[in-house]
Design a protein that fits this description.
The structure is a homodimer.
Chain A: H1 17-26, E1 28-32, E2 37-39, E3 47-61, E4 67-74, E5 78-79, E6 93-106, H2 107-116, H3 118-144, H4 147-158, E7 167-170, H5 175-181, H6 186-200, E8 203-205, E9 208-211, H7 214-222
Antiparallel strand pairs in A: 1-6, 2-6, 3-4, 3-5, 3-6, 7-9, 8-9
The structure holds a DNA duplex.
DNA sequence: CGAGGGTTTGAAGTGCATCAAATAGTGTGG
DNA sequence: CCACACTATTTGATGCACTTCAAACCCTCG
């Protein structure tokens, strides 16, 4: 079954075989190239999507063309599903930013199942609660962290929190894209990363960042954050 | 019954009398003075709260004491309820900012009911979806609107969208508090409001703002917003 | 009337954006 | 394998928006 991947994500834990059969009946696995727009903000939302591989950017844009990046997702994440609670319209636009394999699924099946299967409704609630918490943090960071600290925080989220000592981090996508994800200009990103390097002793080489002392990075970045120390992982993995 | 107010809010539509009886059995109606801290971020979350009257500020603060205001709520809103999906810990702190009458209720009853009553779970999902959408907007505004535009947007949300012509708006609380709600300093608020006045022809007198031409205000404020024009109401009323 | 908080104003500094241009890196066809 | 085109990234110079610190002003309330 092509929907097998879905069986392992937390959101669908506790859903019966009938549900997966129904999904399978309408599922399509597709490949998309960088630049492809999956849907745009406000469009009627008939489908949700599961990312098997690749990268997807969620964003909104104003009349004058300025973009606000909502999130950038990768393998294992779903998107477009929340629209079933919001007038069946997508609350953001989605664009492929790295060639992706994506499973296309009907929202109607999900909606029906949520209405009838309380377990799924509860999973969905936990999921949404985690998203809200993440968004809360996002708001906090935008208002009280400076550019360098936001980058540091971003790097910390890329490490597996467990590793205490030295780590090597690879930026998952373009620096320009990271910049937009963090709500700053590419030029600012470049300068702020250089400043972070000077302040915390990290070494930057292209998309590779080496950190000898995670704690020092944490002290600098998390100074302006309400999170417990050290920073809890903010990723909403599925 | 003191919980009668709860019967009319959208979240609890479809809940049976047994649920309200159970709530009633543990409900307390209390009065609190300005300055009272209801709970702090991270504390075990045993209760949720319904505001009968007054104003409550939700916020988080960093080690160095900087505050990030999450939201400011008034009569008809509930808070502290999302913690039941988040390790039973409050995700923010709550402080009374205007003397309030508040109904104190046990989270356990709510949790049990959500687990057993699918209708309530679905209501909760809609509610959370609306909150997420609001937060999305919040993030967008912080990153692409300037101070004056954020104030204009805030004023527009205080009007009842219907009224097309001239309106008189009263700021619901301190200018200092409005400033923090919008993520700016009181000084910046003062100057940005003056700028907004010059740009849109509104008249400001203490806490009273008179708008002759809502559209002009809307054009100025919503230029940097992805919302449909004019701005949809963002309040998450209950 | 005087104390104290809220609000405004002034002056100076900081951080980020913007515009412009140089540099590095990548993929292309010859 | 090189030259070229194109994009990503960095660097420099400048301006604007917001913050910060300081002080004045205003308003309310005892």
């Amino acid at each position: 079954m092509i929907v097998n991947n879905l069986k392992h994500i937390a959101l669908f834990k506790g859903c019966g075989p009938a549900f997966f059969d129904e999904l399978e009946a309408h599922a399509q696995l597709q490949s998309y190239q960088k630049g492809k727009i999956m849907f745009i903000n406000g469009e009627p939302a008939e489908r949700f999507y599961f990312i098997k591989s690749g990268w997807v950017k969620l964003f909104r844009e104003t009349l004058d063309g300025t973009q606000a990046v909502v999130d950038i997702l990768t393998a294992g994440h779903i998107f477009g599903e929340t629209s079933i609670f919001e007038d069946d319209a997508y609350p953001y636009s989605a664009e492929i930013v790295g060639s992706s394999q994506i499973m296309v699924l009907p929202n109607s099946v999900l909606k029906t199942e949520i209405e009838n299967n309380n377990k799924l409704a509860l999973n969905m609630l936990s999921f949404m609660a985690r998203c809200r918490r993440q968004q809360d943090k996002e708001i906090e960071h935008l208002s009280i962290q400076n550019a360098s600290q936001r980058i540091g925080c971003f790097l910390l989220r890329l490490t597996n929190q467990e590793s205490a000592g030295a780590v090597t981090i690879r930026l998952p996508y373009d620096k320009t894209l990271v910049a937009s994800r963090l709500g700053m200009q590419p030029e600012t990103f470049s300068r702020a990363l250089a400043k972070l390097r000077d302040k915390t002793g990290i070494r930057v080489n292209g998309a590779t960042v080496e950190v000898d002392n995670l704690e020092q990075l944490s002290i600098y970045s998390c100074a302006a954050c309400s999170s417990e120390f050290p920073c809890k992982n903010l990723m909403v993995a599925e």
